[in-house]
Amino acid sequence: MPPAEDRTERAERILDAAAELLLRAGYRRTTVEDVAERAGVGKGTVYLHWKNREDLFLAVLLRESVRSLEDLVTALEADPLAVGLSRLTEVQYAHVMGRPLLRAGYADDAGTLGKLLPKLHAKLDPRHDEAFVDYLELLAANDLLRTDRPARELAVAYQAVLHGFLLAGHPPALIADTVAHAFEPAALSTRQLRAVAPRVLELFTESVALDRKQLERAY
User: Fold this and answer.
1) Side-chain half-sphere CA neighbours of 3 within 13 A
2) Cα distances (Å, whole numbers) of residue 142 to 14, 71, 110, 128
3) Which of 79, 175, 196, 211 has its CA 20 to 30 A from that of 87?
4) What is the pLDDT at residue 178?
């Protein structure tokens, strides 16, 4: 059994190859043999990491998702005022749109990804969704979100808006404006945004850790 670090480096190289081929040829036309050849390993080596083709490509998407969420955490560290829902959505939406594989998934590009994205969501730790509800509840408790509906219902409505925009590919500023009008009070307190920023950062950092562990288990 190779050292853990070597195994991780090899897995990353295989995922790099798989991601490149997904974008170039699409899910249906990319085989495990293609990925192995591009990564410079044997086909059997790929199967040491993933039991089948679908698991391999799901790991590619999971890695993209983790990296996107890590980008969000970095943005929140740089700008605590970005923790409000509309601004946070604008930032993360731009991150997703800037990652071709994630964008293809939300745009229902079956040629590139097949039907992998719903399967990816099914594999995520359920605490990931709970962390987002906790985030909304925190905003509501600090007058940074509408309070006429429970946070869990707002989460469902928000996801519908987000997925609709991702499917259509509208610009980030438009979804930020839509979210602001649909979910936030007329004015957000800078003081309140700064007050909740540490906990919001903590929640999303915890989500990154959950997804990162899921990815490491996939290796």
Assistant:
1) 3
2) 45, 25, 41, 22
3) 211
4) 98
Predicted confidence at residue 216, as pLDDT, reads 84
Q: Are 70 and 211 in contact (CB under 8 A)?
A: no
Amino acid identity, residue 189?
S
The model's pLDDT over 152-164, given as tens digits with 9 standing for 90+, comes to: 999 999 999 998 9
3-state secondary structure the chain: CCCHHHHHHHHHHHHHHHHHHHHHHCCCCCCHHHHHHHHCCCHHHHHHHCCCHHHHHHHHHHHHHHHHHHHHHHHHHHCHHHHCHHHHHHHHHHHHHCCHHHHHHHCCCHHHHCCHHHHHHHHCCCHHHHHHHHHHHHHHHCCCCCCCCCHHHHHHHHHHHHHHHHHHCCCHHHHHHHHHHHHCCCCCCHHHHHHHHHHHHHHHHHHHHHHHHHHHHHC
- pTM beyond 0.85: the answer is yes
Nearest to 64 by CA among 25, 31, 29, 113: 113
Span 5-59, pLDDT tens digits: 588 899 999 999 999 999 898 888 999 999 999 999 999 999 999 999 999 999 9
State the amino acid at position 40 in one-letter form: G
- Least Cα distance to 216 among 6, 11, 2, 3 occurs for 11
